[in-house]
From TrEMBL:
<feature type="domain" description="Pyridoxamine 5'-phosphate oxidase N-terminal">
    <location>
        <begin position="43"/>
        <end position="137"/>
    </location>
</feature>
<feature type="coiled-coil region">
    <location>
        <begin position="174"/>
        <end position="208"/>
    </location>
</feature>
<keyword id="KW-0175">Coiled coil</keyword>
<protein>
    <recommendedName>
        <fullName>Pyridoxamine 5'-phosphate oxidase N-terminal domain-containing protein</fullName>
    </recommendedName>
</protein>
<dbReference type="InterPro" id="IPR011576">
    <property type="entry name" value="Pyridox_Oxase_N"/>
</dbReference>
<dbReference type="Pfam" id="PF01243">
    <property type="entry name" value="PNPOx_N"/>
</dbReference>
<dbReference type="InterPro" id="IPR012349">
    <property type="entry name" value="Split_barrel_FMN-bd"/>
</dbReference>
């Protein structure tokens, strides 16, 4: 099933028609890829993420958006239709988990700010706890990360879509900034050492 078929409701299509974009999206629906199976490109993108946002819907009908985070690579690609991630112990409100028990549909958005890229995923979630989660916990555990895993979310991907980079402001983590300036820092250290050596040799010449 395609991303458009899940989200382009009759009302959405009427708005597209009204504002002149329906013809473009209709062509995409008919000739574009279905985007229901992850490729190596999406898998690589997911492996680099250390956070994302997802939306669930509660029994009251209200959507709830939550940030999820962990070490880079905490989102595990199990196969081209399945993702898994640990639910690390947090504020113990359990709103997302409770919502998923009554409506297992979820929408995720992941943004790579430096490259101005965003991936949206629609899926259905299975929750594994207790004895049923043992095998899954070992698959999602992050070595060296001490957060307690309360349960495992297994996401069955129904569709995904890449969005345009418009309006994404590039932002960089401390690690990314460090990597970007690392070569310059190393060069500065080399110059400082060379200058110190030259000063020492000049002082020695003056003394003699």
């Amino acid at each position: 099933m395609s991303f458009a078929s899940l989200l382009f409701t009759p009302e959405v299509k009427r708005l597209q028609e009204r504002f002149g974009s329906r013809q473009q999206y209709e062509r995409m629906e008919k000739s574009g890829p279905s985007h229901d199976r992850l490729t190596a490109f999406e898998s690589e993108f997911l492996a680099e993420r250390d956070s994302f946002y997802w939306a669930t819907t509660g029994a009251t009908g209200w959507p709830y958006v939550q940030h999820r985070g962990g070490p880079k690579g905490f989102i595990k690609v199990i196969d081209d239709r399945t993702l898994a991630l640990a639910d690390f112990r947090g504020n113990t409100q359990y709103i997302s988990t409770g919502n998923l028990l009554t409506d297992n549909r979820v929408a995720l958005i992941m943004v790579d700010y430096p490259r101005q890229a965003r991936l949206k995923i629609l899926g259905r979630v299975e929750i594994f706890e207790g004895e049923k989660a043992v095998g899954w916990i070992e698959r999602v555990r992050m070595l060296g990360y001490k957060a307690v895993i309360e349960r495992v979310f297994v996401i069955h991907v129904e569709a995904y879509d890449w969005n345009c980079p418009q309006h994404i402001t590039p932002r960089y983590t401390a690690e990314e900034v460090h990597d970007a300036v690392h070569a310059t820092e190393e060069r500065l250290r080399s110059v400082e050492l060379e200058n110190a050596k030259l000063r020492k040799e000049l002082a020695h010449l003056r003394a003699s």
